[in-house]
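re: that complex we talked abt at group meeting.

here r the seqs, copy pasted straight from the sheet so there may be weird spacing, ignore it
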Amino acid sequence: MQHRRVSTLLIGISLMLAACAQGPRTSPTSPPVAGEQPRPGGTLTFVVASEPPSFDAHRETTYAILHPGSPQYSTLLRYDPNDLTKIIPDVAASMPEFSPDKLTATVKLRTDVKFHDGTPMTGEDVLATYNKIVFPPQGVASARQGAYAAVESMSATKDTIVFKLKYPSASFVASLASPWNWIYSAAKLKQDIKWYEKNVGPGTGPFVFDKYTKGSDWTGKKNPDYFGKDKNGTQLPYLDGYKAIFIVDVTAQVNAIRGKTAQIEFRGFTPEQRDTLARALGTDLAIQEAPWICVNYITPNTKKAPFNDVRVRRALTIALDRWKMGEDLQKITSLRDIGGLMRPKGPFAMPDADLAKIAGFSRDAAAAKQQARDLLKAAGQEGLKFNLLNRNTPTPYEPLAIRLLDEWKQVGITVTNQPKQTTAYFADLDSGNFDVALDFNCDFLDEPDLQLAKFYSVSRVGTTLNRAGFNDTKLDGMIDAQSRETDPEKRKKLVWDIERYAMDEMAYMSPSPWWFRIIPYSNKVRGWKVGSNHYTNQDLVSVWLAP
Amino acid sequence: MQRYIAGRLLLMVPTLVGVAVLTFMIMRLVPGDIVQLRFMAGGGTVSRALIDAERHRLGLDKPMLEQFTDWMTAAARLDLGTSLWTNRPVIEEIGLRLGLSLELALLATVIAIALALPLGVIAALKQDTWVDYAIRVFSIGGLALPSFWIGILTILLLLTVFRWLPPLTFTPIWEDPVQNLAQLIWPALAVGYRYSAVAMRMTRSSVLEVMREDYVRTARAKGLGERLVVVRHALRNSLLPVVTVISLEFAFLIGGLVVTEQVFNLNGIGKLLVDAVVNRDYTMIQGLVLLLASVFVIINFLVDMLYLVLDPRIRYA
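got the structure back, here u go
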């Protein structure tokens, strides 16, 4: 607690000093103009706000491994760095081909891919990689194994890998582009299945691992044998190398960009930090912003009275004027866009007009507040009091909680904010020791299978996913149905039905305003586009530095 | 004397065992565990089976007594185990940071002594003059301003005026002394100022006290010059409390510069300890607390030995 207060004080003091020392607030600038000729050479220095616990992306869930490590690895498919909504082949020679029954996916592989130790990559390596992810042996952790539940078996030839599915899966192709699925060497995995947990590489990515100094930095050098070329036939990557500096303190991160010691931090800053940098660096700074696939869920404990009463849960969500919350909170936090269970402005987002018909999304705030009061009265819960379990992260959790407290106070609910240090927060979430909690979710992809995983019955996925603790076989069936629907338009409608049911009819969990990413960076950095998540597009293959 | 020293050395063992037992128990009373944090803090969706398997792998599902016995048995062989977070030996993780923390503590101590002793003595000799007032204001400033805040101001000043930021990655002194100093001198100044303030006030009051002693009057009466009186008689005798303060501050600096380390992005012991507590990395916390307790115990012992040198009247039975 003391530490958090000191950190908050640090940020506050530095922002105050910066505000006093500088001129007026500067508006965000546009990213550098596209169409310039990439220039080879140079070393990109970027900040990473935490350190990876191990080197194995298959087992970890933190971006802290992806930012320094991704440049050393390839994946089977990837997101196009020029259009981050599009999936393209990486070590695959082409996109997967499906059998007519959609139960067999065949992926042809490139034959010119080499590991950094000089050995050629074959289907055996891709098969060993996916076996480790989908069917990990005893004692090997695979964090996203559940995302491949549709896979029945896999086989490979020298230049092909074949996936047999138990049922058609709408998210399967996207899951092959997961930034976590680094291709590993079968020989190394055979030698020691935990090789990549303890060692960096060999990979097949655009950069070769150079050095990692714990607590300090991680460096990589250009891979001269990388298989990728740009549209003009120029050998990729453009950069000679990169250096990732680990800086935990946010003030020090901002100072690193401001002092030009580092050129970019890829996860994101707050609006205040962006403005501080904009004032200090002026035209030397470029800024990119994008909606983020991260959201906080207001999560009532459905196992506990009075939150086992749907009227109380509906009152909690209806009482919130989300549209105004988004307007206000975006000035001080990374919260902005209003949406349902799928990211606003994303491919599965419900249109605003439909969203406004759902409990808690009405444009008529006064009427909604009255409706919330009526529901509480009907449930015999006028003057309801409860504790809000919160994470003690200064932003966006604390300002969000303050706003929620205010919104609920307006309908007669008295709430005590209980911010807890992250481990204690998780312990309470996991054991159901809370009245209402601020849960959260971040994903690498706009994909209902990922974003709706928290809405499966607790008996099916446990409290590590379903924090609200409800069981609902109807909802399970609805989520399964959308997962197997391969027609995108039909699937979208199924997802919207789920949103109406889960957020309105049952009011199990409801989202706060969604996050948005703010990346202020040196205007010399080119060839990098902000995406809707901080996991993909981190291999730096297309990044270059202007003189 | 030798028996006294042997006794003091032997007493260190139960002290450290007590520290180990307390740390082990207290950390396990705090809610939350490392596995949840590792797999969930990023917002991902992982299964209960994965969480349980990882807890089993780390031995966190064993009875507490068994965990304690395993750890103490290994510690008796000087094996502090492996970090639950990084899976690397605790000794190795500490070793990586100890150099930086020691160097910073030494630099800050040198700065503190260089400021505290002359200014403390001058303030005492010029008691209640404008010189004394100026030095007292300077020292109270050091006590009142947190060193991390001075650190922030220093960085902002360097950025605003010189458009320069100290290096953010550590270079050992034997690789590049200039780069090393360019990084560490600023936190050392920020910490050394506060540290010097404590020592300066202690020096001033101690010298004032000694200057009123009979032997100082005797020294003056036998015609010794004021400089000799101060240096040979007053200063040496007034050093006992000053040495105690400086030594304990030095021990504190090894692991206590958490916020300053964050401000200057220093990869030191303080940051490692905070990370370990936040991550509930039990083995790392236990190893670090043992290390810091050992530093305090050893420094206390050395200070007691130093008393013998500084004041020949002291005898340990």
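couple things i noticed - Chain A touches chain B through 66 residues (CB under 8 Å). Chain A has 18 helices and 21 strands.
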